[in-house]
Amino acid sequence: MPENPIKLAVIIGSVRGGRFGTTVAEWFAGQAELHGDVEVETIDIADYPLPLEMPAFGEKPPEDVAAVWNALKERLGHADAFVVVTPEYNHTLPAALKNTIDWYLAEWAAKPVGLVSYGGVGGGLRASEHLRQIFAEVHAMTVREMLSFHNAWADFQKEGEPASPEGSEAAATKLLDQLVWWADALRGARERTPYTV
Fold it and tell me: 197 lies in a domain?
């Protein structure tokens, strides 16, 4: 591992009961650890239940929300890059994931985002495409390469490994290569010139 590895946050974007996202996220986090250029941390948004009602723009969250908001703010701010693992609900991303993104701004800014989606026959692709637009608005940039697991429940064996790992592992490596390149470039740029939103 390099002296100053990229700090990668793998975000589990579903809070639904019986969710499959933890299986996909754990597999991807394992691939990231094997990559060698990143320090991996998994963030489960189910652990940070932010309400739908938000404070007025520029105001701090109310006291009963502040502890959760600050805890996640610190973890997101610490990251150099993100990978968001998302299912597709009704042709888009889960509401809880969108809500989590909306609560923050500077923490996403000038950082790269990789997308890993899963679902039925569509493989979560529409959720990923919508996330590209959302992350652009919060000043983050999504990398081109992504992973998509179609009929994901059949794709993974009982041990949580893909049934056809060769293609999945190669795709994960490609995504991570791009993510690390951009994370390194943007981290250097932020250090030279702080990014303002």
Answer: no
